[in-house]
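## Example pair
The file below holds two records. Each record gives the amino-acid sequence first, followed by its structure token line.
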Amino acid sequence: MLPLRRPNGLRVLDLCCGAGGLSMGYYLAGFDVVGVDNRPQPNYPFTFHQADALTFPLDGFDLVHASWPCQHFARVTAWRGSRGNHPDLLTPGRARLEASGLPWVIENVPEAPLRPDYLLCGTQFGLSVRRHRVFETSWGGGGDLVPPCWHRKGLLAFEHKGERAYADAMGCTWMTNIEARQAVPPAYTEWIATQFLALEGRAAA
């Protein structure tokens, strides 16, 4: 069962949505959410389309979020193989969002070539996980500040032996262990959505 929220009448399209960690954040902020991914996502909790995120229609949405695959930029890819084996979808994806005229958000790993309008970590939201992600937005950041990271002892590290606990600590309780490996805590986009709503002159849900 989905958590309760107050709808704000806006629709967000989540491209490369995965199992819906960041989608859930927008939902909690009051958005109606539609997700798109090129792979089946049987546990995705909202309206879902299996399609190409670079060509899916953007019409009818008030905000577009995109989490283009991070393997081309992630350090872990270089450690385990070759970044060249993974295409850069962020560059053409950003160009498409910029041409759309819609407000947008792009999320990726800190190594990605994004303007760090928001650099977020689970510890800033009281979560017992360290997971840094960068967000570039069409409005360029600003808004209320979150506390700095607090990398205290006892934080859950992402390890396969403990990944169920890690998924739950992120707030991604509906996902399988495998799905949660690529997930990002909903708290990040719930907070970003609140910044967007404030800029639009709307109250958060």
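Second record, same layout:
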Amino acid sequence: MEVEIIRSKRRKKTVAARVVDGRIQVRVPEGMKPEEEAAVIAQLRRKLESQQDQASLQHKAEALNHQYLQGRAQWSAIRWVSNQQHRWGSYSPQSGEIRISDRLYGVPEYVLDSVIVHELAHSIEPNHSKAFWELAGRVAHAERARGFLEGLQYRQG
């Protein structure tokens, strides 16, 4: 997202940021040093973009749940994580949380959809039973997505 910097004479120490019309608007003290300003803006940008990504992931999960699982999946939260190096996603039955590996940033949409539906299906069928695979396999291009992920796993090593 584009960043708009607003330097304020009234601000002395605090910095604020928000999304306005698809841009990140950052308000900083007028006298802030350029290197300090750049670091603060980078941090705020990551935080706001992450919040936007999380909301987008939630909307995607809701749509996929209705489209492929008739709204039967139940989860408390879905979010991107950076600490999953061996899994593409995970579902915790205790907390109801779905975690999606950030290694999937930028993959084709059908691949991400397949991983999300896989994790949503775990909220209905906890193991990899025949019933589970019937649910997870409903997503468009499921086999193709599985092949893509196998290739990606091989490449990432």
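Notes on the second record: Helices lie at 34-69, 109-122, 130-136, 142-156. Strands lie at 3-8, 16-20, 23-29, 77-81, 89-92, 97-101.
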